[in-house]
Automatic annotation (TrEMBL):
Compartments where found: Cell inner membrane
Entry annotated with the keyword Transmembrane helix: yes
InterPro entries tied to this protein: MFS (IPR011701), MFS_trans_sf (IPR036259), MFS_TsgA-like (IPR050375)
Keywords: Cell membrane, Membrane, Transmembrane, Transmembrane helix
Keyword Iron: no
Name the UniProt record assigns to this protein: MFS transporter
Source species of the chain: Sphingomonas abietis
Membrane topology: Multi-pass membrane protein
Pfam families: MFS_1
Regions crossing the membrane: 12-33, 53-71, 78-96, 102-121, 142-163, 175-192, 220-243, 255-274, 286-304, 310-332, 339-363, 369-387
Main location (coarse class): membrane
Length: 398
């Protein structure tokens, strides 16, 4: 994909702000479904965390056909399709919530996440049009900051409807409102569907998939994305239960759900700051520092009590903030023709958000919530190893 002129690039960036911000808001609300289902249906940790198994497994199930279709119809049309599918999932979820059918809830989440997979693959591929690693990293990090803005607003809204007084009367309203907003955004992308040229798929493009998968750099990057998403989703989801514990903050479900917005606020602030810091600090150095910070805060959360542990757990969001854009930037192949396939492979690795929370939940049911947090702790070691071992492709990325 050839870099667009500045006017087109600015318009693309503005459109993507809605995608990243809306996606963050929806993901944060989905995280609150875990404590809600525990309260309303009496599920244990492993059962409730199967919400993430349904929501994130689509990255593994649908990434290949979605990439094939996205390459055929073009990124802008693919994003439009993804937004429409997400809107449909929101409407179906409203029906499922009304019926209190857990299996139906999981099915609708899978539909919703299929739309998110469209956005991840096509949206991330579009960002590669803004230039090489040094130019792309700050802008991609800024997009991720707006994603975090959505995740900050999400718990503030979602906690009231899912965990507060409105939970019994109107638990579906956030999803109905979300469906309308997603359809409006889909209309905006459809209106700009020809902003970028539609690429041509070819046998040569797909013949390079095997070679791309075999590259050690890509394998390591997929492992790092798997670990990062798994750790982030696990911490963000279990933070509500952690903050409700009498030996930490002893908060009510509603108050704990709202406090999780501080976790995402840290991620938002870190991404804005990270976009600026990347002008002075190398990509690898910043990624490794974030891993060390996250692991240190997690150790404090697992060993301290009272407000110290609660603050430490929420502060991990600050360290998570820059991990995804930095891993993604370091993983990008040098050849533009491989960008779509690389984006697909990295999005498939997001399935870590389905696996790591369930593994943590199974462990939590056996040994307790706090000791089970060792699982996301191990994820930071995987990400750190990737950051240390990955050689930058361009000057200034070290």
């Amino acid at each position: 994909m050839n870099p667009p002129d500045d006017r087109v690039a600015d318009r693309l960036f503005c459109l993507l702000l809605g995608v990243y911000g809306g996606g963050g808001l929806l993901n944060a609300i989905v995280n609150l479904l875990v404590p809600r289902l525990q309260i309303t249906l009496g599920l244990d940790y492993a059962q409730a965390l199967s919400v993430h198994l349904a929501y994130y497994s689509s990255y593994l199930l649908f990434a290949l056909p979605i990439t094939l279709w996205s390459i055929r119809i073009g990124a802008m049309r693919a994003i439009t399709a993804g937004l429409a599918i997400m809107a449909s999932g929101c409407l179906l979820f409203a029906v499922a919530q009304g019926q209190r059918d857990f299996a139906f809830v999981l099915t609708t989440l899978l539909v919703m996440s299929a739309g998110v997979t469209f956005l991840q693959i096509s949206g991330n591929a579009v960002t590669t049009a803004f230039g090489g690693s040094v130019r792309m990293a700050p802008r991609f990090t800024l997009l991720q900051a707006f994603n975090s803005l959505g995740t900050v607003i999400g718990p503030l809204i979602g906690a009231w409807f899912l965990l507060g007084r409105a939970a019994a009367a109107a638990p579906v309203q956030p999803f109905l409102i979300g469906a309308v907003a997603l359809l409006l955004l889909a209309a905006a992308f459809w209106a700009h569907r020809d902003l970028l040229p539609r690429p041509r798929s070819s046998p040569l493009l797909w013949s390079g998939l095997g070679a791309l998968v075999r590259r050690g750099r890509m394998q390591a990057a997929m492992g790092a994305i798997f670990a990062y998403v798994g750790a982030e989703v696990t911490i963000a989801t279990l933070a509500v239960d952690y903050l409700m514990r009498p030996d930490t903050l002893g908060q009510s479900p509603l108050a704990a759900g709202r406090l999780v917005s501080l976790y995402w606020a840290g991620a938002m602030a870190g991404r804005f700051a990270g976009s600026y810091a990347l002008r002075r600090i190398g990509i690898r150095h910043l990624l490794c520092a974030a891993c060390i910070g996250a692991a240190s805060l997690l150790v404090i959360a697992m060993t301290a009590r009272g407000s110290v542990g609660g603050v430490a757990l929420l502060a991990i969001g600050l360290c998570h903030s820059v991990m995804f854009p930095l891993i993604f930037t370091l993983a990008l192949p040098a050849e533009d023709k491989d960008a779509a396939l690389a984006s697909m492979l990295l999005c498939m690795a997001v399935v870590g958000g389905a696996v790591i929370p369930v593994v943590t939940g199974l462990l939590a049911d056996r040994i307790g919530l706090v000791p089970s947090l060792v699982v996301p702790g191990l994820c930071y070691g995987v990400i750190f190893a990737f950051g240390r071992a990955t050689t930058p492709r361009v000057p200034g990325a070290a």
